[in-house]
Fold these 3 entries.
Entry 1:
Amino acid sequence: MIEIISVSKSYNKINNAVDDISLTINKGEVFGFLGPNGAGKTTTIKMITGIIAPTKGDIKVSGISITKNPLEAKKKFAYVPDTPDMFLRLKGIEYLNFMADVYGVSKNERKKKIEDLSKRFDMESALGDKLQTYSHGMRQKIVVMGALIHDPEVWILDEPLTGLDPKSAYILKEMMREHTDAGKTVFFSTHVLDVAEKVCDRVAIINKGKILFCGTLAEMKEHFKANESLEQMFLELTENE
């Protein structure tokens, strides 16, 4: 569960990149965070994960404040950033073991998890190679694997499907559903509206730092009183902002 409580972020003390937003992402749901580039999606995710601090407000992950108790809060979630270019001198297996060490995953548990994830993402033959030799899609997969190695309660994914091949994208979407079926939480940002339509239980649309809509896709359709596609509704929501 994630609670975003009256959160704002200003980088220049004049304009808010994120402007007084409040959201509750429940256990057992895939929650999509939609908006055009520059809308405030990544800033919000960086505040949820504790990379940057909000100017005002508070954020709780599994009931723990990321601003007041960041180390405990960070144990509760996995974070996949929008750019997977990190630790490029490490081999795939070294990166996964490093992430397992960070989260205190036992030797037996990590072995089983690495075998399972590398098989699902078809990465078994690449684990001995350095990340700098990987394609963008392979780097994306290894970062996802590293994030999930400690089986966290909450997944926070920033544009997670970018660069993935269709099979891997399908597998990740399948894993999101398995995770929420177990009563856990997935929060992910995207500007690909078709993905949100197929995967999400609820969505929020953000533009220019403000939440324009939050609810189910059915509620969104009812809100517009029409059978328009999500893309058309999205454009109607944002065109006058």
Note: The chain has a mean pLDDT of 87.
Entry 2:
Amino acid sequence: MSEEQTVSLVDVLEEDEELEEEASAVLAGSDSDHCSYPQGYVKRQALYACNTCTPKGGEAAGICLACSYKCHEGHDLFELYTKRNFRCDCGNRKFSELQCKLYPDKDDANSQNKYNHNFFGMYCTCSRPYPDPDDQEEDEMIQCVVCEDWLHGRHLSRAVPECVEMQEMICESCMSKNKFLWTYAAHLAVPGSSEQTKEEPGEESAADVPKKVEKVDGVTECPGKRRREEAELSCRLKELQDIGQKTVQSGAVFWPPSWRSKLCSCTSCQAQLSEAGLSFLLDESDTVLAYENKGKSSEQSQQGHDPLMSALDNLNRVQQLEIIHGYNDMKTELKNFLQTFATEGKVVTSEDIRGFFEEQSRKRRRVDAGPFYCS
């Protein structure tokens, strides 16, 4: 007889808290009250697609967080997580029967926006919806930092490394379109993310070369110093190519934190990245992790201006301490109260909660009544 899997109330509360943190990380970085259109092509923001207004077969369109709330309430929406350099489409010519309530004066289209099948609720190389009702296999989805499509871990042709949430991934298709990235992958990719091979031994190292002192224009100069100065002006990508270490050019590639700072930013490489539409790879603040951290900071800042805290500011020190102690006591008692249900595996009913607060109210009345003295 197999044991039935049980989930305690503490597990539920912890999972709920994790979901709230994830939502804060994504949504707090975007404005929930004002359409983002006036900001132009926003560096990164939470986006949605409306299946009700722009279904498959029509033109792809994306809407900002505020418009998803104010203009598309009750519609069938696809959550796109975040995308870069996007301007809100809500109410433009792609929406034949809907006008944006927040910012109706918009151009017919946003020519710099980039769209993929995510805007019609399809994801990965398998072009399936998420969540997929026909997929019985548990699998995480990972976003490519270049095309920004979401792919199943099992469809990456590469084992997903540990701590993947701290790493960026470029899918095999994007790597193949930008072959110079394979050179970086051979040196910078997460260990095990790409199989590396060594070509013929390179030139002798600087340590094996006898040190010489040369005179340039009558001035004694160390050639080692000159080589370092020349290296600073050279192309880092070319240097990596000359080393001769290569990688098997197949499968997705995972990159460690701060890998972008190790990319070459010489004039030639900047031009190459720009032509490929990859200039954002030189910007470490472009990452989803940087955006999420910004969202968390914004959420914490807003919590710092909580109305309850503002009300406390208007009370004297004694009153503040009384309220804070009372709140902490109630929070502790509520936690202990719920813990007993979790420990015993009991279900918490509305009557249980009502009884708890009625008991708290009775305790409060006894305290407020003060001491009783006999005359």
Note: DSSP finds eleven helices and eleven strands in the chain.
Entry 3:
Amino acid sequence: MVYNFSAGPAMLPVEVMQQAQAEFCNFNDLGVSVMELSHRSSDYIAVAAQAEQDLRDLMQIPDNYKVLFLQGGGRGQFAALAFNLMGKNAKADYIVTGQWSQSAIAEAEKVGTVRVLDGFAAASEQGPRALASEWDLDPQAAYVHYCTNETVEGVEYSFVPDTGDVPLIADMSSTILSRPIDVTKFGLIYAGAQKNIGPSGLAVVIVREDLLNQACPQTPAIMDYAAMAKSDSMLNTPPTYAWYLAGLVFKWLKREGGLEAMGKRNKAKAELLYSYVDASNFYSNNVHPDARSWMNIPFQLTDESLNEAFLAQAKAEGLLALKGHRIVGGMRASVYNAMPIEGVQALVDFMDKFAKQHA
């Protein structure tokens, strides 16, 4: 059995891929693939509408939020967000906890003024820093942005920041659909698809209606949330096959028990791996316990000279893509929704065997 621990593009549910394979050349007995259907056809519009409804059901999205299926992945939304929300007040607060929240700032600064806020609490001699929960926020800011989970560093918020009357914007690319959330706490949620939704290239945006029609005049139409909402995300030809696959994932999630069930599974997977690492003298994790990610679990070997041997032997046993991001090094196991707990157990068993071999 092969288990893919890639941070993204990540593994998809086998059941979903098998259904897509079966329908690849003959969707709904039409004699053509779904990717060959016109996005204006009634057959494809039904696919798109059902995907949206299933996502609304899963996340309990209120009627006063629009759901958009867009191109450009999560990084495309770094720019689109700023273009859409800085039209009236060209300043925003950005909470930084890692690589992706920092990257979002680089795009927003091209549109308006960004104030950078440290996402971590004051340094302590006791070890890793916990996440901050209070900031000196600008009440006049167009929005406050944060990344719910930093895939590179393995840092995740276990709470929703309180930003008062200022709209809270969340990059949920790596946590969306991993557990229940209260959508009403957010002005806008966006997510690249390639972790818990589907293949890369697609992005999902969930935006409260009162935040539409605030775009900067220079906003490209393809990035304009209001224009996309008015055209049901079909102002241009959308990424039709990725949208279709996302719809299959949403149905799979429903069959698996929805987000309550996913939350329990994901918590159990994370606890299994963290518990082993914490009890080991051979491996370590350097993230504060209160800030540890359920989705991306970095760990280091005490003897880094064994890194390449670890990766080679893991691959030989069907445990793929465990190399940590080049910025932080070490190892990283990404355990999104499609990763079964059996995969995490297989990793723990291998880690234990490797440690004993090199004791």
Note: The chain is about 35% helix and 15% strand.
